[in-house]
From TrEMBL:
Identification of the protein by name: Nickel transport system ATP-binding protein
Annotated keywords: ATP-binding, Nucleotide-binding, Transport
One Gene Ontology term of the molecular function aspect: ATP hydrolysis activity
Lineage: Bacteria, Bacillati, Bacillota, Clostridia, Peptostreptococcales
A Pfam family assignment: ABC_tran
InterPro entries documented for this protein: AAA+_ATPase (IPR003593), ABC_transp_ATP-bind (IPR050319), ABC_transporter-like_ATP-bd (IPR003439), ABC_transporter-like_CS (IPR017871), P-loop_NTPase (IPR027417)
Coiled coil: none
Single biological process term from Gene Ontology: transmembrane transport
Keyword Ribonucleoprotein attached: no
Family: Belongs to the ABC transporter superfamily.
CDD domains: ABC_NikE_OppD_transporters
Length: 253
């Protein structure tokens, strides 16, 4: 369903004193993986290993220097039309900055409907917005609230509802639950699991935290300086052999 083939990403080194021909820092190097529908992959790496950069490439926000992301066989970057109907959505860690503070909940969610390209009637939009709110455990009474009138957990649920409303088949969670308190994390994980099973969604969890990965994922890829150093089934975690992967595991266990 999704296949990432030989992608590399580099950024300009901004702090260099050279005026011309700034050199570039390679952040992702020749990275590949694929995932079937309904599968759940964890991408684990330390800070600065390139996790968020990879997440942005997967969901169509950052064109790689080379390589491409194929969704159901169609290249995401090579063909602009495919980008428009991209089936990948993303939920970021920072729910505050990923929502417009001036938009009420109903607009935050309904914004996604226009991206699906379908003509919508007002009543239809309202009913669909309520159905997505209900799916994430919130009621219609939240429709007119603004982000600052919600708790962190409630606002992250709104972000999840927005991701679902795009009809994405693949959802990337970039540290999406790490900043929530333990109780809310459990609630959101249960909710995500339920939605995944019901809609047979494909999840990619990008994180430095094992909790969500072991709860959801079938396998984990360890990211170190922009390349995967080991891939392992969650059920075989104790057999991890790469030194970096071992260190990372012991530091989070
Ligand atoms: N827009 C950018 N311009 C220049 N360098 C960048 C940019 N975005 C990220 N980087 C650099 O790329 C490297 C990887 O960053 P990235 O955000 O992908 O890491 P990460 O694994 O998600 O880290 P964290 O867990 O701390 O969020 C870092 O060295 C970072 O400074």
């Amino acid at each position: 369903m999704i296949s990432v083939k030989n992608i590399s990403v580099s950024y300009k080194k901004e702090n260099e004193k050279r005026l011309f021909k700034k050199s570039r820092e390679i952040v992702i190097e020749d990275l590949s993986f694929s995932l079937d529908k309904g599968e759940c992959l964890g991408i684990l790496g330390e800070s600065g290993s390139g996790k968020s950069t990879l997440g942005k490439v997967i969901c169509g926000l950052l064109k790689p220097d080379c390589g491409d992301v194929f969704i159901n066989g169609a290249p995401l970057y090579e063909n602009k039309k495919n980008k428009k109907k991209c089936l990948v959505s993303v939920v970021f860690q920072d729910y505050t900055s990923s929502t417009n503070p001036r938009m009420p909940v109903r607009e935050i969610i309904a914004e996604s409907f226009s991206k699906t390209g379908k003509e919508n009637k007002k009543d239809d939009i309202l009913n669909r917005t309520i159905s997505y709110l209900t799916a994430v455990g919130l009621s219609a009474e939240y429709l007119n609230r603004f982000p600052h009138e919600l708790s962190g957990g409630q606002l992250q649920r709104v972000c999840i509802a927005r991701a679902l409303a795009t009809h994405a088949e693949i959802i990337v969670f970039d540290e999406a639950i790490s900043s929530l308190d333990a109780h809310t994390q459990v609630q959101i994980m249960d909710l995500l699991k339920e939605i995944q099973i019901e809609k047979n969604l494909t999840y990619i969890f990008i994180t430095h935290d094992l909790t969500s990965v072991t709860y959801f994922c079938d396998r984990i890829n360890f990211l170190y300086k922009g390349t995967f150093v080991e891939e392992i089934k969650v059920s075989k975690l104790s057999d991890v052999s790469n030194n970096y992967a071992k260190k990372l595991l012991y530091s989070v266990l």
